[in-house]
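FAQ

Q: What does a record look like?
A: Structure on top, sequence underneath. For example:
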């Protein structure tokens, strides 16, 4: 075998291939769709689009972001039930996909029906208030809510999402009840609180630029420690109510994906964590790098599915029957 022939064979063996009805094709050979299960304009949309653009450059094809908001960020996972496991349809996997199946009937099982490719980042959650709200600190908000039972209204990113359940757990521990108003995503909540429709927002890091611009007041964050961007803002836990919530997320696809295709996608999205544009976007929205490889991310999904069951049951939100 000639040297050029040996090189050609080696290259062919190294490249991932997927079967088609008529021929074998190198992956990827056409555009990939990455579903963002949140509306355009919010922090999740911006981050997913940054990952998509960067991964496309690594893969050598366009990665198109498609927004499918609603049902607590689960429509991406639902779409995987109809998608071919060929690597050309992917979705962001928010924490809610492990929780909502315990609360209501869903079309998917987050462990059995999905391929967990790579975990990339997570959210910084916070409780913010309108500037004209009658409280300037978290403790003042709690005191107001206790003195005005059921009158505190807050917006969140959808029933069963992490901002919703984290606030409810905090309210339970603080001894007050609040009226929750679900939205399809962070962009809608921002419009609602700036428009005076809700005085309080429990949401992800979309509040950052608004707080920095003096348009909203950050009462507290929900992490284990204070956020680097707003070191003066206390956590809910250090304020006296033991509520901690973070929310890692990554990229997934349908079950049954070829291991070689998964490896190519994993490596490409992992590479995006070295892209300055991606890192700048994560920093803008206070989202830390939380990397898990395919095996570790799969184990995380299995553990989280069970821990979320316990959380839902503790809050009395588990589905009946």
């Amino acid at each position: 075998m000639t040297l050029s022939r040996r090189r050609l064979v080696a290259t062919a063996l190294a490249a991932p291939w997927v079967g088609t009805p008529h021929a074998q094709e190198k992956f990827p050979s056409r555009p990939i769709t990455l579903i963002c299960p949140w509306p355009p304009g919010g922090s999740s949309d911006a981050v997913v689009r940054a990952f998509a653009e960067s991964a496309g450059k690594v893969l050598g094809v366009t990665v198109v972001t498609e927004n499918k908001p609603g049902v607590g960020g689960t429509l991406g996972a639902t779409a995987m039930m109809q998608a071919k496991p060929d690597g050309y349809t992917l979705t962001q996997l928010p924490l809610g996909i492990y929780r909502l199946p315990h609360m209501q009937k869903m079309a998917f099982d987050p462990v059995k029906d999905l391929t967990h490719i790579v975990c990339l980042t997570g959210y910084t959650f916070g409780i913010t208030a309108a500037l004209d709200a009658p409280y300037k600190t978290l403790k003042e908000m709690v005191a107001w809510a206790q003195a005005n039972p059921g009158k505190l209204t807050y917006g969140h990113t959808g029933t069963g999402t992490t901002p919703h359940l984290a606030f409810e757990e905090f309210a339970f521990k603080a001894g007050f009840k609040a009226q929750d108003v679900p939205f399809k995503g962070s962009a809608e909540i921002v419009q609602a609180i700036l428009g005076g429709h809700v005085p309080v927002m429990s949401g992800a890091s979309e509040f950052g630029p608004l707080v920095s611009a003096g348009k909203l007041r950050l009462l507290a964050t929900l992490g284990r420690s204070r956020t680097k961007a707003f070191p003066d803002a206390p956590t809910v836990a250090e304020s006296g109510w033991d509520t901690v919530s973070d929310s890692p997320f990554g990229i997934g696809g349908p079950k049954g994906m070829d291991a070689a295709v998964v490896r190519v996608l994993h490596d490409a999205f992992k590479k995006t964590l070295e892209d300055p544009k991606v890192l700048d976007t994560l920093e803008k929205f206070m989202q830390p790098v939380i990397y898990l490889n395919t095996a570790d991310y799969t184990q995380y999904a299995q553990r989280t599915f069970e821990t979320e069951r316990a959380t839902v049951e503790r809050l009395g939100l588990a589905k009946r029957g």
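Q: Is there anything notable about this one?
A: The chain has two domains: 3-122+247-314, 126-221.
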